Amino acid sequence: MTTIDTIKYNNDDINNTMRLQAYITEGSRSKPIEKEEALNLIKTKCKKMFGSGIKIYRGVDNEDDFLFSDPRKGVERKSANTGNYYTWLMDHLSSWTEYPRRSYSLICATSKSISENFGYPFYVFPFDGAKIGVCSEEDLWGGFPKLKKYGGSDFENLDDFNSYLSDMFTSMDDLLEGGDGTPRVDGPKGYQYHDSWEDFRNGLTKLAIHQDAGLFKSFENLFDSEVPSFWQILQHRKKGEAISLFFDRIMDPKENKFKLVKAGQVNNIPLDREVWTEGPAVLINTRLDVSKFGKEWKNWI
């Protein structure tokens, strides 16, 4: 049976995928289980994924052989080393309603060679009926061509989106309050737009209101050189347009060529993609010789 872990990467490709580290390293939402329980769950609950022969992988900081994971049961996952802005948008924008929530998903890869850079590579078997989000590019960071188009030549990926938006918030507060650009940890809301979805949403609303009021007319003369990239994105927002509708337009998964499939839809998952799924899954360490599990496993591998 055809597998999908045959992609070969050169050194540049491997280096580029290092930014996936925060996403395909297992957190605390998994527990070890016995072999018999794992194989029985796959046989009874993961029949479509197993029957398709498609393989997805996750790097796990765990040396156990078999794991059960339900990301919905743990704490909300947060993007490491960066703001959570795009994760919140994907979780809450109406255009992403049908997709698994990034904050409560296992983030995986369709290549073993990627996942093994970030832990012990495990096969991932989502339960039947599980939704799987499929990135339009090798990883999520490069998967929003509209953002890249609107952000100009300096805008490369979602890391830029996070940092530029953070700078935009700081600059907005500087204009409104005459501050010095330092985070406002005292007093009302201020700069605390990264603490929760509610604070972030309030910050975006505030940004839209002041954009419509002309607060940023002399923007290019006032701010850090990185901020205008996000300002360029905002230029595509129509005056009076709700900020959520604006982001729905430019981050729409269909417009950005993301896919939504269900476990086992083998023909709909490209070879070298980041994928994510919300819900229970069984994980098996790839160091095991699964062909010894039985005839059906010999065919699967």
Protein model, in words:
This protein has helices spanning 11-16, 35-45, 47-52, 85-92, 112-115, 145-151, 158-177, 197-212, 227-234, 243-251, 295-300, and strands spanning 30-32, 57-60, 66-69, 106-109, 120-126, 131-134, 259-262, 274-277, 281-285. The strands form two sheets. The chain has a five-stranded antiparallel beta sheet. A four-stranded antiparallel beta sheet has the order 4-8-6-7. With 301 residues, it is α+β, with helices and mostly antiparallel strands. α7 (158-177) packs across α9. The protein has two domains: 11-81 and 100-141 and 262-300, no CATH class; 144-251, no CATH class. The longest helix has 20 residues, at 158-177. The chain is built from eleven helices and nine strands. The protein starts with 10 loop residues before the first helix and ends with a helix.
Give the rounded overall mean pLDDT. 79
| Share of β-strand residues | 5-15%
How many β-strand runs? 9
Structural domain tally:
2
Globular, elongated, flat, extended or rod-shaped: what is the shape?
elongated
Rounded to the nearest angstrom, the distance between the terminal CA atoms is: 7 Å
Question: Number of helical segments?
Answer: 11
Instruction: Give me the side-by-side strand order of the main sheet.
Output: 1-3-9-5-2
Helix content: 25-40%
Radius of gyration: 21 Å
Which series of helices and strands comes N to C? Answer: HEHHEEHEHEEHHHHHEEEH
Structural class comes to alpha+beta
Stretches where pLDDT falls below 50 for ≥5 residues? 1-27, 179-190
Strand count, sense and barrel status of the largest sheet are: 5 strands, antiparallel
